[in-house]
């Protein structure tokens, strides 16, 4: 899949509140009321990632989950990353 331009990524980020473009990746820190709410989110996101065969890097902490999407094989952000970031937003 083709890597998106910075302009294309910026336009997509307008529809993704709280997401940022950092080091060739889409990144968001999600906050939750409880630790288990964060774990529940991770489990639901993992199911979506498996369905799409496109998996995020996740960092789990107390009441927060860091989510990073990038397409390593394309060297940056692609439409797949945008689609999965939107899936993550739908789960929040």
How many beta-strand runs?
A: 4
H and E string: HEEHEEH
Give the CATH H-level superfamily.
Transcriptional coactivator/pterin dehydratase
The number of helical runs is: 3
- Please state the overall shape, judged from the principal axes of the Cα atoms: globular
CATH architectural name:
2-Layer Sandwich
Straight-line distance between termini: 27 Å
Percent in strands: 15-25%
Helix fraction bin: 40-55%
What is the domain tally? 1
Main β-sheet, spatial strand arrangement: 1-2-4-3
Q: Main beta sheet, described?
A: 4 strands, antiparallel
Structural class: alpha+beta
Report on this structure:
The chain contains 3 helices and 4 strands. It has a single domain, classed as 2-Layer Sandwich (Gyrase A, domain 2). Helix 2 packs antiparallel against helix 3. The protein is 42% helix and 23% strand. The longest helix has 18 residues. With 92 residues, it is an alpha+beta fold. The model has no long low-confidence stretch (mean pLDDT 96). The radius of gyration is 13 Å and the shape is globular.
């Amino acid at each position: 899949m083709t890597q998106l331009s910075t302009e294309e990524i910026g336009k997509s980020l307008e529809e993704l509140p709280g997401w940022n473009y950092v080091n060739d990746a889409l990144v968001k820190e999600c906050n939750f009321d409880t630790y288990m709410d964060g774990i529940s989110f991770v489990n639901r996101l993992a199911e979506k990632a498996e369905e799409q065969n496109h998996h995020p890097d996740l960092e789990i902490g107390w009441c927060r989950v860091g989510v990073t999407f990038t397409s390593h094989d394309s060297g940056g952000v692609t439409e797949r990353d945008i689609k999965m970031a939107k899936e993550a937003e739908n789960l929040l």
